[in-house]
Amino acid sequence: MARSRSQTLLAIGCALVAEAAAPRPNLRPPAPAAPAPRAPALQTRRAALAALTLTPAAARAAQLTDQNAPVTRPEAGRAFAEAILPPVPFGRATYRYDLGRGAYAFEQLLRFQNVSATVRTNVQRLRNGKLWVVAPVAPTGECLSLLKDIGEVEHLVLPVTALEHKAFFGPFQRQFPSASVWAAPGQYGPFGTLGFSPETSTLPFRVDGVLPRTKSDKQPPWASEIETKTFYVDLPGNAGPVSEAAFFHKDSKTLFVTDAVSWIPRLDRAPDIFRTSFDDKVYDNDDFWPKSVLQAVFLTLRKDGQRWPGYDAITDKVVRAPILAAFADIRAPSETLAWIDDVCRWPFERVVTSHFASPFAASPAEVRSAFGQNPQKIDARDWKQLDDLNKVIVDNDLGAVIKGDYH
Predict the structure, then answer these.
(1) Whether 194 contacts 186, CB under 8 Å
(2) Which of 61, 189, 227, 330 matches a 20 to 30 Å C-alpha distance to 388?
(3) How crowded is the C-beta side of 305, counted as CA atoms within 13 Å?
(4) Rounded to an integer, what distance in angstroms lies between the CA atom of residue 98 and that of residue 138?
(5) Does residue 400 form part of some domain?
(6) SS3 content of the chain, % helix, strand, coil (to 5)
(7) What angle do CA 139, 177, 126 make, to 5 degrees?
(8) Domain-located, residue 182
(9) In the chain, how many domains are there?
(10) Number of helices (H), then strands (E), in the chain
(11) How confident is the model at residue 72 (pLDDT cuts 50, 70, 90)?
(12) How confident is the model over 345-370, as pLDDT tens digits?
């Protein structure tokens, strides 16, 4: 019998959270547009620093900044042969965005049944002109061509344990064998494991260092320019540890995060990259972008007249994704708040993330406020899907104990 839409979403949700919910202790790590002119591979120190010219801190509320037209190069190739994550119909396009202050984003699409979302590799040019690359996406011909345009890759960083951000790391690293490799602790699952030192790694790529959890831990070679603060918990009942590193690029006053917060723009149409994977009839539907957003963050598809209340609640502001608030934060509330409090001691002026849109101007206080209990005042009816999924986890003892509430 065919599944209903709600049954399908429930199945997808269970699959996506299985990595952090299913009790599989054996997977734990050991304890302890037209082609742009090609830029020179290297820049002088003076040119690299010139790219970091700062603008005054925004005096008004958080807002998107430095939104420039993307650069694409489809003729370089959008195919990716390694079947790691579900394929993207019509090819895995890469859009390169200039984020200003020496930073770039390389955007691709992720699709899983009826869930689709953008995912980004973020890149920062260092003082020596070389590149610091975090959370690599699929190394298609287009992606590699656009990356090699802007310089030489010196460091590759795996900042999280989440599957969608580590799935392509091995193939990407093979393209840059001389780059240093640093990874968040607590890696586990089908790609191998990593504890708190490189010697514990069973990952299918070289690991030079583990991202530090304390100042006394070994610091990465970019520490004089980019500081690191790593969240790490290993809760009884979960499949394995959860970690995410945040980074502060001091020269540009930029906070780099992967999933911690997002800015979801309120748009008439989805971002242009969706056109590369969806036909015009689907893309031009007025409901396509709001539904895509709600499905990506697992809020209920509830429409009130012409409005999608859940979508309205979380767009055009700094947000903690509802799926993370519902599944992660309530199982480690004190650890989560301690980490974000520490992150918000950095004097950043803007934020670059790995999903949706960035950079956005935001103060530490605005980022911290996203971690409150339902700060967007999302209606209880819009939480129903996440409530149902959490009930499955709790009723079947599939995850760690809940220690709080999220709405």
Answers:
(1) yes
(2) 189
(3) 3
(4) 19
(5) no
(6) 30, 20, 50
(7) 80
(8) yes
(9) 1
(10) 12, 15
(11) very high
(12) 999 999 999 999 999 999 999 999 99
